[in-house]
Amino acid sequence: MNTAYISLGSNRGKRKENLERSIAQLNEKAGEVVLCSSLYETEPWKMENANSFLNQVVELKTTLPAEKLMEILLGIEAFLGRVRREGKYTPRTIDLDILFYNNEVISTEKVKVPHPLLHERKFVLEPLMEIAPDLIHPLLKKNSSQLLKECKDTYAVVRVMSK
Question: What is the pLDDT of residues 54-76, one digit of tens each?
């Protein structure tokens, strides 16, 4: 059994419902979500004039290899109406990213794990720290709590709903 940490974010449509539907899809298609962080209202990262996000991190138990899990995540995004546009940072109904997959380091065309920017994003680190404070980043050799303390991200991240 593999353990993956997945970040979820939504800033279009019914944001809370988008997160809930994503978790239901993860349970149906990818394995079992065993832990969910609280919901966090977050300032849009590197986006101007965009709605704020609802973000969350979940722990997923899965038998899927990382590349297949990524395919499932992309399928869930499409199912929930995400349209990928030009430009990296655009509003979206749902954004699903693999943050960690076991303690593996994976770098393929389709999958980069640990997520290459997770240590720079407070909107990922706050919910991750809530459910996995002692999880060690396999490249940086620091736990989630240390990464959050050292994060220079100044965008607002506020817990709005406890798990």
Answer: 999 999 999 999 999 999 999 99
Four-CA torsion 64, 67, 68, 71, nearest 10 degrees: 140
Cα–Cα dist 110/80, whole Å: 20
Residue pair 142/136 in contact by the 8 Å Cβ criterion:
yes
Task: Return d(Cα 64, Cα 54) in angstroms, integer.
Answer: 27
Query: Please, are residues 139 and 129 in contact by the beta-carbon 8 Å criterion?
Result: no
Tokens (6 digits) for 83 = 């349209």
Give the residue numbers annotated as catalytic, written as ranges. Answer: 82, 92, 95, 97
Whole-angstrom distance, CA of residue 112 vs CA of residue 80? 23
Please determine, looking at this structure, whether the domain spanning 2-161 carries the CATH number 3.30.70.560: yes
Which sign, positive or negative, has the C-alpha torsion 81, 1, 39, 146?
Answer: negative
**pLDDT score recorded for residue 47:** 64
Cβ neighbour number for residue 68 with a 10 Å cutoff = 14
Find the helix or strand (DSSP H, E) in which 52 lies.
none
Q: Where are the domains of the chain?
A: 2-161
Q: What is the pLDDT of residue 119?
A: 95
pLDDT more than 90, % of the chain: 82
What whole-number distance in Å separates Cα of residue 94 and Cα of residue 1? Answer: 26
